[in-house]
Write a structure and sequence with these properties.
This protein has 11 helices and 9 strands.
């Protein structure tokens, strides 16, 4: 049931877990209409290079964890497109159920768009139900701290929440680390306005070299060159040190190091921020 090799086919609820997630149906028509824009951003604007896609399972429950950045979650959109891209035979052809922060529910129009696209609120009960159905769940364990990073903090991972480790342990599913390089230069955050964010129901409003100076035009991201790298699957329950002692803090640090190593590897191999 978690195999989305046929993205247009709507899953049929057949369990209590499916009923638990019936509040988060996917609008397949909306996703279809968004494909041309996502394809342009992925192939032409950011020219996203993907490495290690073979580590993402084509079916069954799994959790993806990686770095987050940019004030506006363009990276989440590009990740979702890469995982579903039906034109790429290397893609698993799956719809990612991306967990979004709870503050989004305070912005009804944004929350509605996220949910219709397939994203779901970051609640254990929701993630439990998704994994029980064999879905592909994406967690940005830095949370708001990831997208709130200032430009001079780019590629410095913030503390990870333990949710991915706990969910992996409970559901016996693998974790696939991933890293975006290039996304942190696309929307360089040089400041944050908490007061403006409060008015909008968000933790803050990002300030960039172009926003709010250039008004709406300043919201446009820069056309940096992106790389999306996936690492090998991590089976926490199979690792000797965790067999008898589910130390979630240690597991989480293990995941954080894996993402950091992917970032370092891709940064070391990058020749230019905008070309290549």
């Amino acid at each position: 049931m978690g195999d989305y090799t046929q993205p247009r086919s709507k899953p049929t609820p057949d369990s209590a877990s499916a009923r638990a997630t019936s509040a988060y149906p996917i609008d397949y028509e909306l996703r279809e209409r968004a494909l041309p824009l996502l394809r342009f951003l992925f192939d032409t604007y950011w020219r996203v290079a993907v490495r290690g896609m073979e580590h993402v399972p084509r079916r069954g429950g799994a959790i993806l964890v990686g770095n987050h950045s940019g004030g506006i979650p363009f990276d989440a959109a590009m990740l979702g497109y890469a995982l579903e891209n039906r034109g790429n035979p290397a893609s698993p052809g799956r719809i990612a159920r991306i967990l979004y922060d709870r503050f989004i529910d305070g912005m009804p129009a944004v929350a509605d768009l996220y949910r219709r696209s397939g994203a779901v609120p970051a609640r254990y009960a929701v993630a439990d139900a998704m994994l029980a159905r064999g879905e592909l769940v994406v967690i940005f364990p830095e949370g708001v701290g990831g997208i709130a990073k200032l430009f001079d903090q780019r590629y410095r991972l913030q503390p990870f929440a333990t949710s991915a480790a706990r969910l992996s342990w409970k559901h016996r599913v693998p974790i696939i680390p991933f890293a975006f390089v290039g996304a942190e230069e696309a929307y360089p955050v040089i400041g944050r306005s908490e007061s403006a964010g409060l008015a909008l129901g968000a933790p803050y409003v990002p300030i960039t070299p172009f926003f709010p100076l250039l008004g709406p035009l300043g919201v446009l991201p820069l056309p940096s060159k992106w790389t999306l790298a996936f690492g090998r699957r991590i089976y926490l329950r199979r690792e000797q040190r965790f067999i008898r002692d589910p130390d979630f803090a240690a597991m989480t640090e293990r995941l954080r190091r894996s993402v950091a190593l992917l970032i370092q590897r891709e940064l070391a191999g990058r020749s230019s921020v905008f070309f290549g």
